[in-house]
Structures are given as C-alpha cells and as structure tokens.
Here is the input.
Amino acid sequence: MKQGLGMYIYAAGSTMPDKSAFYSADGDFLIVPQHGVLDIRTEFGKMLVRPNEICVIPRGIRYHVALHDNEPVRGYIMELYQGHFKLPELGPIGSNGLANARDFQTPVADFIEDHENTEWTLYGKFGGNLFAAKQSHTPFDIVAWHGTYYPYKYDLGRFNPVGSISYDHPDPSIFTVLTAPSIPHGAGTAVADFVIFPPRWLVAENTFRPPWYHRNTMSEFMGLIMGNYDAKGAGKGGFQPAGASLHNTMSGHGPDMQTFERASTMELAPQKVGEGSMAFMFESCLMVGVTEWGLKTCQKVQESYNAHSWGPLKVHFKRPETSRGVGNDEKKNGVGDAKDMSSVHDIKGK
Here is the structure.
C-alpha cells in the first residue's frame, strides 16, 4: 500500500467512542469537510476543521474525531499512499501566490493525563483492512513536539489565485493547493493534486471562458463544498454540494449545454465567478477504479449524466459546399481536388 492513492466520501452522525483513536498505516489523509465541523484531537494537539477548510493527517498519526455541537458531518477524503503533500513549485509566479506557507496552521501540544487503570481502543487501517487493539494508556500523551512531520490545516479562503489577464483559459493546475509529485512519471505529473476553483475574476477577451472540452491524461475526481460550479448547471441533474464526478484518464468532458450557451453569447466584460462557492478536484496521473459502493450500493449514480450534460448540445459549424475547391458536382475527398491543392503538402524532392 505504498503506491497510489484512494478517494473516499465520508459521513458520520456521532462522535467516535470515548477512549478511542484511529490511524492509517497506509497513507496521509487529506480531509475536505463539506457539512459539519470536525473537532479533531491528534497526538500533536487539537484542530477544529470547518467546511471551506482542509486538514492533512500524515500516515501513522493517532487521532480522535468528535462532532462539534453534535452536528452530523459529511465530506471527502483523499488518501496518499506514496510520498507526502507539498506546496507546488511556483515557477514564473515567483515567491508568493496560490497557497502561501504562512497560512497553514499546526496544532499546539495538548496532552491527556490518563495512564493508570484505563483502557483505550486503537483502530488501525493497514493494507486496506481495519484492525483494533487495546492499550493501557492514552495515545494522546505528547507534552511537546518539534520537527517536520505533523498534522496541519488550511483555510481555502486564503488561497491567492492567478489567471489570464489577456486571453485564453489556462490549465486548472494554476489552482493547485497541494501536490504529491510522481517522480517516475516525469515532470508535470503527480500522484495526487488537490485543486480548487475559488471565487475569482474572469477578464479574458475573445475567449470561451469556462473550461474547454477536452480529454486528459490525468484522472479527475471533482467535488463541491458549497455553492455552484461555474462549468456545470445546478438544480436537478446538475452538480450539487456533496456530489462528485469522476472523469477517468482520456474520458472526454467539458461544460454542460446551458453553460456552453451562456458563455458563447455573453458580453465579455469583467466577471466575478464562484462567489459563495467552492468546487475542488482530486487529480492523479493514475487510472482510478470505482468500488461497488460507488457504482451501485450508494444508489446515487446519475445514469443519464451524459445525456443530461451534453446530449442537448447543438452543431454550430458546417463546412460550406464550395469550400476548399470542391463544387456541388465534384467528388469530396477530404483534401481538396485537382483544382485546389492548397491542403496537400508538396513532398516531391527539389
């Protein structure tokens, strides 16, 4: 379990039992709350993680999760089996931008005095299986710590996005919060990227501003924390908070019909998008499988997804009958005819 990643959707209606803790030996957990607040006690101290914040708990660290004010919780998790998350290289952006190191928060040491006549249950995830063990003292007995291996949290509202101020739609990698590079696959690929689509201004001219239609060598798992995603409609059959979509490697996708029509006819004045919204993406260079729960048991799969999103799209371009030297009474061979060789390369030697 030290290669790859896992993606989960979680929900809970009660706090973990008293005197219990959990850890994963398989990988680092990146937790994205969508509803409800997580009150997390780790070996290093406490973190209160709200929707629109994320936290990372590295492999092996023990922690206990309580529901703040007993409110049910729901959200997403990406588990990284190899390497660790880091800030992306900023390149020409310079020394600051995107997720700044100064905005990440770490817990302050806080310990429990419970080490006599007590019993704690420790739950462990190991090799994809769950185990339980008893111990005679609390795991939360660290009185001080220092070093480079620790849990942390980040407020997504602190993200400093960049974008085009002239034309065209840049790749979504410009919105990367955290990344786990894939060394064997070369530069520009990642085992895991955590990307967000925050509130931002769009000012590009002569441009189709939503994400264009494409196929991608990366697998894209998208979720929505709140609000509406600007490339998909809301409402019945649309992309809603707590929902998710997966476009695996080389699966074609792009804006739905209503987004296409709106973006194709709108006035290209400066526009604020994503206000009150936060969509995100778990992206990976790896091919992603789907569990039985995800395909069937959850009973939430939108079977008409393709028809609803792209079925209504209309053809807007048609080749003129007289194009490229082909007349109505001439055979169309796709590369022009003898009267017009403008589309045929001259490969004869000189």
